[in-house]
Amino acid sequence: MSVSGERLRHPLAERLSAGFEHRYGDGFVVTRPGGLVMPAEFLLDAQRIHDFPVRQDDVWLATFPKSGTTWTQELVWLLMNDLDFETAKEMCVTKRFPYLESRVYCWRQAREPGARGGQAGRAGHHQAGSGPAAAGTRLIKSRLPPALLPRQLWTVKPKIIYVARSPKDAATSFYYHNCLIHGLKLSLDEFLECFLADCVQFTPYWTSVLEFWKLRNEPNILWNTYEEMKQDLGAVIRKTAAFLDKEVTEEQVRQLEQHLSFSSMRDNPATNYGGVVEAFMREGQVGGSRRRMSPEMDHRFDQWIRDHVRGTGYSGPL
Ligand code: PPS
């Protein structure tokens, strides 16, 4: 199937794109298939991603943005690398565990002749993009929904971990991420209004979450949540290790819990994107968003959640 897209023509999408100081000047598109809102540049790469060769021994991580991806990457990388804490602290997580569609975020640099992509883009191409010839288990993260992910995922069936997070917290975290990294100049409520209207990159939120929810009982899929990780990290470590066919002792679980605590990851440049952005690790709380958005927006979010969850049987984080 070929991937295409159409310009997203919505006043809130125009407002959002104008609110970015140094990104998304070309506006947003809605993809077909998938109905995903992405920066227009994504279409230059979408087919290559959809045709990306998958291997049986890959481990994939899929999430909606700001749902605990980095936290899970660090856990999975350590489980797959004999708990090599030393290397984990020396090398940025994005180099160890590349991001499939990273070139979208480095596209402007990448398409200029002779220009070098950003750190994530180089890592993505060097490792995730190196195709079937490269040796060893590949760890690959993506924020794309099933319809846009490499189609071989559904026939080759490697292990896939999905991490869900409450939409209010993910959306609020995404707002601060966009302000910090992409120079967004809107208020939180203005951004959330765009989010609820599916005008923000990587929305609709529900496409990602509900489609993976339906797949959660497949033997090659593990469904985790940010909220579970906050509540009982040890249990998520054990569950994830079992899924990856790795044995961990209780002492190792304790070491992992220590390494993966919010304060350790915040103080660790390899997980806090040290030298690239300030304060990637922002707050690390469950429910913190309700204190930040207005009561009206909180109310609108509740209604929006009810409307989308009704009839789906969804019991993930809300
Ligand atoms: S991204 O950019 O999509 O890859 O972001 P992602 O890693 O998915 O999510 C970032 C949020 O996860 C929080 N985080 C943690 N919380 C608790 N404990 C640990 N160890 C941890 N690691 C990352 C991070 O702070 C972001 O959430 P907010 O709410 O913004 O603090």
Helices and strands, with pairings:
Layout: E1 4-7, H1 11-19, E2 28-32, E3 37-39, H2 46-50, E4 59-63, H3 69-80, H4 85-90, H5 93-96, H6 102-105, H7 107-111, H8 119-126, E5 139-142, H9 153-156, E6 159-164, H10 167-182, H11 188-196, H12 205-215, E7 221-225, H13 226-231, H14 233-243, H15 250-259, H16 262-266, H17 289-292, H18 295-309
Parallel strand pairs: 4-5, 4-6, 6-7
Antiparallel strand pairs: 1-2, 2-3
Helix pairs in contact: 10-11, 14-15
Bound molecules: 3'-phosphate-adenosine-5'-phosphate sulfate (PPS).
3'-phosphate-adenosine-5'-phosphate sulfate is lined by residues 63, 65-71, 169, 173, 176-177, 260-262, 265, 281-284.
Structure description:
The protein has one domain: 3-Layer(aba) Sandwich (Rossmann fold). It has a four-stranded parallel β-sheet with strand order 5-4-6-7, sandwiched between helices. A three-stranded antiparallel β-sheet has the order 1-2-3, with no helix packed on it. The chain is α/β, with parallel strands linked by helices. The chain contains 18 helices and seven strands.
Task: Describe this protein with a few key phrases.
3-stranded antiparallel beta sheet, 4-stranded parallel beta sheet, alpha/beta, binds 3'-phosphate-adenosine-5'-phosphate sulfate, 318 residues, Rossmann fold
Helix residue percentage: 40-55%
List the ligand species. 3'-phosphate-adenosine-5'-phosphate sulfate
Rg calculated over all Cα atoms: 19 Å
* CATH homologous superfamily placement: P-loop containing nucleotide triphosphate hydrolases
Q: Regarding quaternary structure, how should these chains be classified?
A: single chain
Give the CATH level 1 class.
Answer: Alpha Beta
Mean pLDDT over all positions: 89
Q: Quick one: biggest sheet?
A: 4 strands, parallel
Q: Please give the count of helices.
A: 18
Element pattern in H and E: EHEEHEHHHHHHEHEHHHEHHHHHH
Strand runs, count: 7
CATH architecture: 3-Layer(aba) Sandwich
| CATH fold-level topology | Rossmann fold
Name the beta content range: 5-15%
Low-confidence stretches: 106-134
Judged by helices, strands and strand pairing, the structural class is alpha/beta
**Principal-axes shape call:** globular
How many independent structural domains?
1
How far apart the termini lie comes to 33 Å
